[in-house]
Amino acid sequence: MNTIIRVLVMALTVVFSTVSAQEFQGVATYKTQRKVDIKLDSTQMDSQMQERMLAMMKKQFQKTYNLTFNKEISTYKQEEELDKPQVGGGDFQVMVVGNGGGDDVLYKNTKENRYSEVRDSFGKIFLIQDELDPIEWKLESDTKYIGEYQCYKATYTKMVEKARVFSNSDSNNEESKEQDKEPEMEERTVTAWYTPQIAVTNGPDKYQGLPGLILEVHDGDLTVICSKIVLNPQDKVDIEEPTKGKKVNREEYEKIMEKKAKEMMERYAPRNGRDNGETIEIRIGG
């Protein structure tokens, strides 16, 4: 059955290859949201404050991105927001580790299998350059329409770190040792819906590698859905690879972020027996 599906998909790709001219380009708009369901005990935060924190976090993950692409390259960038939500306030602050900012830009070159990503992290600009991870997609038989486009289902599994919550109130007891332990991992199935009618092996964020543009992704608590597509816009858009920022590879960047996160926790930790407020660090796996 999988062989039949692959043949059908490739045939559709050829049928719709009329859009594969050298000057072909498009802009796809995606909406993202993440389900936030993190439980904290009453010693960390009362129920009313927890509800307020989760509501702010949910709003923070509701974003709009534009994928500007042609047959080989693309940029993925968040639309500008008039009012960026802040997670925290009052007597607590929340650091969400693993969540990009509005100034971040992801450039992908699917032909050369590489990416360049600008990250504004802790007030410093980084330029992460590395290879795209290979994704072992399994092409499924399910189909559905997203707008006017017929889409096909694809899935793959990966190991991800479970979401973890750390509090600076734990810094002087045995629970603080949990931060030094190896993260607990779990298997996750990622589902994508792609359309061969737009014959590019691209999609939102780092999702790519299917015989058609990816229009929808379900990755754990994260959902990404395409809301609008403009093919060959009247005003041609430039797709440029970013060059500014401290150049690092992905492993180097992750080590720097781990170090910075620990420094932030220590900075806001209680000193001399006095409580300077509560800081919660939440690590989102994926």
Q: Would you mind describing this structure in some detail?
A:
The protein has a single domain (2-283), classed as Lipoprotein localisation LolA/LolB/LppX (outer membrane lipoprotein receptor (LolB), chain A). With 286 residues, it is of the alpha+beta class. The strands form two sheets. A twelve-stranded mixed β-sheet has the order 9-10-12-13-14-1-2-3-6-7-8-15. Strands 4-5-16-11 form a four-stranded mixed β-sheet, with helices on one face. The chain is built from three helices and 16 strands. The protein is 16% helix and 41% strand.
Question: Secondary-structure blueprint of this entry?
Answer:
Layout: H1 2-15, E1 25-34, H2 47-60, E2 63-70, E3 73-78, E4 88-89, E5 92-97, E6 105-109, E7 114-121, E8 124-131, E9 138-146, E10 149-161, E11 164-167, E12 185-195, E13 213-219, E14 222-231, E15 246-248, H3 250-267, E16 278-283
Parallel strand pairs: 5-16, 8-15
Antiparallel strand pairs: 1-2, 1-14, 2-3, 3-6, 4-5, 6-7, 7-8, 9-10, 10-12, 11-16, 12-13, 13-14
| CATH level 4 superfamily | Lipoprotein localisation LolA/LolB/LppX
CATH secondary-structure class: Mainly Beta
Structural class: alpha+beta
Compressed to H and E, one letter per element, the order equals HEHEEEEEEEEEEEEEEHE
Q: What's the main sheet like?
A: 12 strands, mixed
What name is given to the CATH topology? outer membrane lipoprotein receptor (LolB), chain A
Mind telling me the C-alpha Rg? 21 Å
What share of residues is helical? 10-25%
Write out the strand line-up for the largest beta sheet, numbering strands in chain order: 9-10-12-13-14-1-2-3-6-7-8-15
- Our estimate of the beta-strand percent is 35-45%
End-to-end Cα distance, whole Å, is 30 Å
The shape, in one word, is globular
The count of domains is 1
From the 3D coordinates, which CATH architecture would you assign?
A: Clam
Query: Spans of 5+ residues with little confidence (pLDDT < 50)?
Result: 14-22
Mean pLDDT: 80
Strand count: 16
Please work out how many helical segments DSSP would assign. 3
